[in-house]
Amino acid sequence: MPETALAVKRRGGATLWAGRNWAFLFLILEVAAFIILGQNFQSLENLQNILVACLPVLLLGMGETFVIITGGIDLSVGFVMGFGAVICAKFMVMLQAAGMAPSASIPLAALIALALGVVPGFINGTLVARLKVPAFLATFGMYGIAYGVSEIVSGNTPISGLPAEAGFLGNEYILYIIPRKLVSVFIKPEHVGPDDLKIMLSILPIIVIIAAVFIAIFAFILSRTRFGQHNYAIGGSQDAAIRAGINVPRHLTWVYVISSFFASLSGVLYALKYVTGRADAGSARMLDSVVAVVIGGASLYGGTGTVKGTIIGALIIATLETGMVNLSVPYHNRYIAIGVILVIAVLIDQFFPDMVGRRE
Amino acid sequence: MADAVLQVRGLTKRFGGLTAVDRVDLDVRPGEVVGLLGDNGAGKSTLIKMVSGVYHPDEGQILFQGREVKMGSPMDALELGIETLYQDLALAENLNVYANIFLGRERTKPFLGFIPVLDHDVMREESSKVLKRLEIEIPSLRSQIKNLSGGQRQAVAISRSIYWNARLLIMDEPTAALGVQEQRKVLDLVRVLRGQNVPIIIISHQMYDVFSVTDRLAVMRRGKKVAERITRDTTPDEVVGLIIGTEEVDRNGMAPR
Hints:
With 360 residues, chain A is mostly helical. Chain A has helices at 5-10, 13-20, 22-37, 44-69, 77-97, 102-130, 135-154, 164-171, 194-199, 206-224, 226-236, 238-243, 248-274, 285-295, 307-326, 332-351, and strands at 173-178, 182-185, 201-205. Chain B is α/β, with parallel strands linked by helices and 257 residues long.
């Protein structure tokens, strides 16, 4: 007798919920452990730092989510992120030199970086979807190309001389509150006394909000639209998708463009946060992003995965990193910890496939 | 006798020196179930692939609903209403029942007035209607295909074709991978479809299936159609003989009795 969703629902709700949401429970336990063991881990500042810290992995993971659901993989995202950072920084410097005000040059440079940043994705998509190059190889080629081009553009050194206002966008908050005294939106209060500064709350980092807007839009696309449905269908059976009349090559091309878009967005935010552009800005983040997606319940065989899962995966990694710094654990242990979590995620996927990746 | 929905005239397909299908004629009339029989390599699949737009015939004509059609791709065949169910069924296993029925042709509704989003309610209701019409029982339309049995999958694939107005249904070994109970259900479904006037071509090796649901049988051997029989006027023994070639066939395709 086949197992129907109904039968599954009847059989032990709580354990099953726990099984299906193991990553979420793991995240809660992780946060709880660091709160107990760490110093002031639960402070607003630290929790917001986790959000900022998870951005590169989360944004690369967003694109990777779309790609992995279709059964592909995008190895180029780390260096496309570097490409986006370098292009953004370079144009900020050039436009400033041309006499443009920061209020115009920063958004313009960001838009140029995003526009050029999708070119690698278009090439990846064309190679994978139309020329039938395996995704692993096509995007691995782009991994090197994007890095090399970024190094040429940046002249092998981090780009400096960006407008100072870029750092404002990259490091300031939406809301400032000094309890019982002042609430300020966007504008950081000046001439604040040292006592007030101590109790001032800075809420919602600007770059987190920028990222959140795009993540929300694409989460909506994936879960509610025909494009999202076709994404899952292609991952489930490319043959079925083709025979159902879905234009699979065009769809896949878009998917790799989306992946590159998120990578270059991450690069732009990097340039804003660190007020520089480096070719290796995201080099260490590509594998982390794949790990985040897999922890989130996606299968590398395609067909499953959610944005919610990827967010949880990215938060698990960022919490781990932040918590280890908080506990002064040597940084290299992070690799071991993330490796262990990844293996656990894959084992769960392997042996309890019903527990992960269900979409409803 | 009603006009044939499908008329195949002198259809021929060669692969290099091999003539896979050799001047085959075949008619299928409304509400008729035709069994297509033959040993491996007899040319059944090649014939069907020409009718479903996968291969282009080298010679001959295909007339569909009285008009000659030339199909450049399987999509052309689908647009005409020629639906082919292959053994792998082409379902997305990770999607649910109604998502598969509507795959590629999803219904949407406006969100915030202008963003088209999937309309799950409409797709589920419409799917449940077509399943009911075909007397198919599937516990939940929200079940993913991978949680369904082989027969249920077959039923979903058939429902999809029917919902999109199949005017001719071609089934390639529909019962091959199924258990006995499931086989029976699929055959019942074929009878329901015939009752609703959907013409069907069934390729099958299973003598029992062929005799229990078909009206007419066409037997192929080495690319040629060697015989055609009204099902109730023949016997499994004769048909097996025709398939393997021990039963002699004269020029008119009639076996001497």
